[in-house]
Amino acid sequence: NAGVTQTPKFRILKIGQSMTLQCTQDMNHNYMYWYRQDPGMGLKLIYYSVGAGITDKGEVPNGYNVSRSTTEDFPLRLELAAPSQTSVYFCASRSQFGNEQFFGPGTRLTVL
Amino acid sequence: TQLLEQSPQFLSIQEGENLTVYCNSSSVFSSLQWYRQEPGEGPVLLVTVVTGGEVKKLKRLTFQFGDARKDSSLHITAAQPGDTGLYLCAGESSNFNKFYFGSGTKLNVKP
């Protein structure tokens, strides 16, 4: 099992560009999450999903969009990148039968 | 505003010392989790506490959930350099769908 994989590992964007952060899990988990972590801080929930076809906003959803067409994939879309979106982005998943979240290795995004 | 407040923010101690990290909120949580995060990696779960007043031990680490399920503490006995890292608490919402993270405690244990 690969667990939770994220691509890319690093990305530099110019203001106004768009990109999609990919997240895939192979554990057949229903729940998936996107967080952002600013330097030296905790994690803020952007969006989450409780199953394929169902998504909901977290604490800081503005400027982001998500979709969940399959159980495995939960991509995060930035439409108009802004410097305030410079952060490390973590995807996580968990089973509906437990509360342990499994995190991916993160994507470090810089918007200049 | 942060739903979960962690203190202290930074802690630098000598090997062998004891320490306690606190995680406080005015909200009630279904469960409270503690994670440890190394630089450049995602957080890794240490423990989940579910019942008010619950105490769990993991080798030299002792975790406690407050009676009212609003706060938690992590106590490390005889800290080792390998304990160095960012410690994060996370509260599970009442509908069991999402988690709120604290701002983290950065621990440095010097040999």
Distance between the termini of chain B: 36 Å
Order of helical and strand elements of chain A: EEEEEEEEEEE
Our Rg estimate of chain B from Cα atoms comes to 13 Å
CATH class of chain B: Mainly Beta
Question: How many domain regions of chain B?
Answer: 1
Task: Give the name of the CATH architecture of chain B.
Answer: Sandwich
Low-confidence stretches of chain B: none
Description:
The complex is a heterodimer of chains A (112) and B (111). Chain A is mostly beta strands. Chain A is built from no helices and 11 strands. In chain A, the strands form 2 sheets. In chain A, strands 2, 4, 5, 6, 9, 10 and 11 form a 7-stranded mixed beta sheet that branches. A 4-stranded antiparallel beta sheet of chain A has the order 1-3-8-7, with no helix packed on it. By secondary structure, chain B is mainly β. Chain B has a single domain (5-110), classed as Sandwich (Immunoglobulin-like), CATH 2.60.40.10. In chain B, 0% of the residues lie in helices and 52% in strands. Chain B contains no helices and 11 strands. In chain B, strand 7 and strand 8 (72-76) form a beta hairpin. Chain B is globular and about 45 Å long. The N and C termini of chain B lie far apart (36 Å). The model of chain B has no long low-confidence stretch (mean pLDDT 93).
